[in-house]
Specification:
The structure holds two protein chains of two kinds.
Chain A lengths: L1 H23 L8 E7 L2 E7 L10 E6 L4 E6 L5 E5 L6 E6 L5 E6 L9 H6 L19 H4 L4 H28 L5 H26 L1
Antiparallel strand pairs in A: 1-2, 2-5, 3-4, 3-6, 6-7
Chain B lengths: L9 H21 L5 H14 L3 E4 L2 E4 L3 H8 L3 H16 L7 H23 L4 H30 L3 H33 L1 H7 L3
Antiparallel strand pairs in B: 1-2
Helix pairs in contact in B: 1-4, 1-5, 2-4, 3-5, 3-6, 4-5, 5-6, 6-7, 7-8
The chains are: A alpha+beta, B mainly alpha.
Chain lengths: 209, 203
């Protein structure tokens, strides 16, 4: 038993050293991450294993929450795949990369633009301000001469917001990429295993007495 | 090597879980109390091994070490790998909880197979036979695990020859590396702690 213990200790040390070594080199090839965001009437998706390793030529399937398959495509070499919003519903983006790798991302309905994109496009290009049309001899009552088409405003707002938020969304996507196992998880797992061993030995020991 | 959640069909998942349960039961029955610390250490090594990435060409692969566990633990490799994979699924999100049974089976069954195939060779007194046998155990365990992975995907609908070829090609570097690691470890243990090898083979 004495020899056993020193052997155990030695291997334990090696495991700890390996863990530290691995923690510093954050390579990762198991968990497939999918991230999706909207821009106007387009949904952009990105699929990756890690920051540097994208899913190239993976299959992307887009489902409605009801489970209905809406569309299907392939990622390019950068792991990106974009499509126009097929339906105003929460979208489940599923990427499969072969050898059993699969990841998904749920894009909630609130993140999609309020009106289906077709409506915005088909709304007639009415004059935004009716001021120029109103007769000049009228008093300057701004309230009735300034008629604004809400659809148009919404569209402009969306465009501006998309532009402004683009860097933030990018940052968020980049932040999500570095979620490989940390030192906490690694030592936590090793701790669990030795804890279980301790339990087994404890109960066995009590039974023997 | 870890199959994610939602890839396999229900029958494959259920039969994988059933077979893993059976293998784990056999393993626990054969588990000698004196070997509990050794099993724990090897489970921890298995748990950490998949974080060791070997960059080969454009992609990187990771160690599995199921061959080493197999030749040292025999049937006990089943519960040991099950523990390692459960913690990997919970803490690292590798694989998934529903595919735990299939993943354990895919890695543990080759381990047990290698225990029976190469055990005699590993315990041989002639050094070169032991070295070759332990290399083959490390190599073969990954090869068989790749075939099992291909088979799991095939039973769900992928074409077997296509999937298996890609998987084996991707894991060829790991097979060689694990063969070397297993050979070195076994040689070391035989020299420094022969009683551990004795425990594994009932001598």
């Amino acid at each position: 038993m004495d020899g056993n213990r020193s052997w155990t200790g030695r291997i334990g040390l090696v495991a700890a050293a390996l863990a530290v070594l691995v923690w510093t080199s954050a390579a990762q090839a198991h968990k497939l991450y999918v991230f999706a965001w909207t821009e106007g009437d387009t949904v952009h998706t990105e699929s990756y294993f890690s920051k540097s390793k994208k899913v190239s030529q993976g299959t992307v399937k887009v489902y409605a929450v009801s489970g209905e398959l809406l569309l299907e495509g392939r990622t390019d070499d950068q792991g990106a795949f974009s499509f126009t919003i097929p339906k105003k519903t929460a979208l489940r983006v599923v990427t499969e990369a072969g050898m059993g790798h699969r990841g998904e991302f749920l894009l909630p309905a609130e993140e999609l633009p309020d009106r289906p994109p077709e409506d915005v496009k088909s709304s007639p290009p009415r004059a935004v301000l009716s001021e120029s049309v109103s007769p000049p001899d009228h008093g300057p009552s701004a309230s009735d001469s300034l008629q604004v088409d809400p659809g148009q405003v919404r569209k402009i707002m969306t465009e501006v917001l998309d532009d402004r938020l683009k860097p933030i969304i990018r940052d968020l996507a980049a932040l999500k990429k570095d979620r490989g196992p940390g030192i906490t998880e690694i030592f936590g797992g090793i701790g669990y295993i030795f804890g279980m061993m301790g339990l087994v030995i404890y109960f066995r020991y009590r039974k023997k007495r | 090597m870890h199959i994610s959640e939602g890839v396999l069909s229900a029958p494959v998942l259920i039969s994988g879980a059933g077979l893993t349960l059976a293998g784990t039961a056999v393993g626990l029955k054969r588990l000698d109390f004196d070997r509990v610390p050794q099993v724990a250490v090897l489970s921890a090594v298995f748990f950490v091994a998949s974080l060791v990435h070997v960059p080969i060409g454009p992609s990187s692969v990771h160690l599995i070490l199921n061959g080493l566990l197999g030749v040292l633990l025999g049937w006990v490799a089943f519960p040991s790998i099950l523990i390692g994979l459960t913690l990997q699924a919970l803490l690292f999100q590798y694989g998934g909880l529903t595919s735990l049974g299939v993943n354990t089976l895919n890695m543990a069954l080759p381990a047990v197979t290698c225990y029976y195939l190469f055990g005699r060779g590993i315990m041989s007194d002639r050094a070169y036979i032991a070295t070759v046998a332990s290399f083959l155990a490390g190599f073969g365990a990954i090869l068989l695990a790749s075939l099992m992975l291909g088979l799991s995907l095939f039973l769900t609908g992928d074409s077997f020859s296509g999937a298996a070829r890609v998987i084996i090609a991707a894991h060829l570097p790991v097979m060689i590396i694990e063969g070397l690691i297993t050979a070195v470890c076994i040689q070391f243990l035989k020299k420094v702690r022969p009683e551990i090898m004795g425990m594994a083979y009932g001598r």
